[in-house]
Task: inverse folding
């Protein structure tokens, strides 16, 4: 039967761990650490945004959000390229070059003498950091498929959540003993540690027979397949809208929690507490997704997310306290944990041969849409939670429509188990 046919040339999940020299725990921790460099570029400096803007002469309080916004937008735009390069030269060299640039540019940010130079450097950092978003996705698809890929991604996300949990606290601690420039020194140090780890332990995961030519026709064809695949399209574009709401909250979180609700120095603990609970929901997802299926879990979470956003918007319209805002927002963030990992696994399932190109185009669309909309949502901050809650409701509804498109109007199906997809043969160069 078709559902039981293995993908030609692709190792089964059961065989892969025996041949792969890195154990599961180390693999999960390594992929999480790579992704953490991107998260660190955002979360560790959230407590310092006011200090940075004040020191560099920024008068408009909303302009401080651009330190985050330009990084997200540039990383999204640049994510179109590392996958295609990695499909030719491999995942490992692309990662090592990207992390090296991350370290050097972090030092440039640390010595920036103007807000304009800081923004330009942050944009360039985003270009190289895009590889840290794309490569773990490609490496994961190189090794796993189906619900097992979703399980492993949830474990990576669970480990990764340590960064948003601790990073704001680290940033706050740095501000207590030194200036904001030292925060970029911490980023550089973490980059050095990740570089050494990847260089010493990560083997190449791209199969030699899957290497693609650096040819415009081949690259465009591989990326085109990712966009044309209906079963994938709705999921990665739907994830973009959910991610936009998340970015919108991150952009305005410091102003909303610290200033509007008056949490002040407690902001890192509030932000970190949300991240800790999200780590827990990612763990739950890793335990249940192989039993129930990525579709059933993520569809349920998306519907709950929409309901929670509607309830929270209603509460925000009538005024709320911090003690009402935090539980409701945390519940919504938890639903994002069930949505993100599973949507990613579903969208990448058809692309075993061209995981790099598929990861790039998906990351490009997801991150650019998420970053642009997230920046607009952040800029709409009006001193209340109303803009972010309205945005979460609209983004959730848009994601649902896109999922219904991919699923042809049917939710909660258990389809496409490991080995369902035949390898899609990439187009030849003309």
Result:
């Amino acid at each position: 039967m078709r559902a039981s046919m293995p993908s030609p040339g692709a190792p089964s999940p059961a065989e892969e761990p025996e041949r792969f020299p890195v154990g599961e725990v180390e693999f999960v921790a390594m992929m999480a650490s790579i992704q953490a460099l991107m998260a660190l570029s955002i979360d560790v400096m959230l407590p310092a945004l006011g200090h940075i803007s004040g020191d560099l002469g920024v008068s408009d309080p909303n302009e401080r959000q651009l330190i985050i916004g330009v990084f997200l937008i540039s990383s999204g735009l640049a994510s179109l390229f590392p996958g295609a390069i990695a499909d030719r030269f491999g995942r490992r060299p692309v990662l090592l070059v990207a992390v090296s640039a991350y370290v050097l540019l972090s030092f440039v940010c640390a010595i920036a003498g103007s807000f304009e130079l800081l923004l330009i450097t942050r944009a360039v950092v985003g270009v190289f950091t895009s590889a840290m978003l794309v490569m773990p996705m490609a490496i994961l698809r190189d090794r796993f498929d189906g619900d097992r890929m979703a399980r492993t991604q949830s474990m990576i996300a669970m480990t990764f959540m340590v960064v948003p949990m601790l990073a704001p606290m680290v940033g706050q601690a740095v501000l207590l003993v030194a200036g904001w420039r030292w925060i970029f020194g911490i980023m550089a140090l973490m980059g050095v540690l990740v570089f050494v780890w990847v260089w010493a332990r990560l083997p190449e995961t791209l199969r030699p027979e899957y290497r693609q030519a650096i040819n415009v026709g081949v690259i465009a064809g591989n990326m085109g397949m990712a966009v044309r695949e209906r079963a994938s399209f709705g999921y990665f574009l739907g994830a973009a809208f959910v991610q936009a709401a998340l970015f919108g909250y991150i952009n305005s979180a410091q102003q909303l929690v610290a200033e509007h609700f008056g949490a002040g120095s407690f902001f890192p603990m509030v932000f970190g507490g949300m991240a800790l609970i999200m780590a827990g929901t990612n763990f739950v997802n890793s335990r249940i997704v192989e039993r129930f299926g990525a579709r059933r879990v993520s569809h349920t979470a998306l519907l709950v997310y929409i309901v929670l956003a509607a309830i929270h918007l209603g509460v925000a319209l009538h005024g709320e306290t911090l003690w009402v805002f935090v539980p409701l927002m945390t519940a919504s963030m938890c639903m994002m944990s069930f949505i993100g990992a599973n949507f990613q696994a579903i969208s990448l399932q058809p692309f075993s041969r061209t995981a790099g190109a598929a990861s790039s185009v998906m990351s490009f669309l997801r991150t650019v849409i998420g970053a642009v909309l997230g920046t607009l949502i952040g800029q709409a901050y009006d001193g209340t939670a109303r803009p972010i809650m309205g945005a979460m409701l609209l983004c959730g509804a848009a994601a649902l429509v896109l999922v219904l498109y991919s699923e042809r109007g049917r939710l909660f199906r258990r389809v496409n188990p490991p080995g369902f997809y035949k390898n899609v043969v990439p187009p030849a160069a003309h």
Remarks:
- The CA atoms of residues 258 and 265 lie 7 Å apart.
- Confidence is low (pLDDT under 50) at residues 1-18, 418-430.
- The first helix runs from residue 16 to 19.
- The chain has one domain: 10-406.
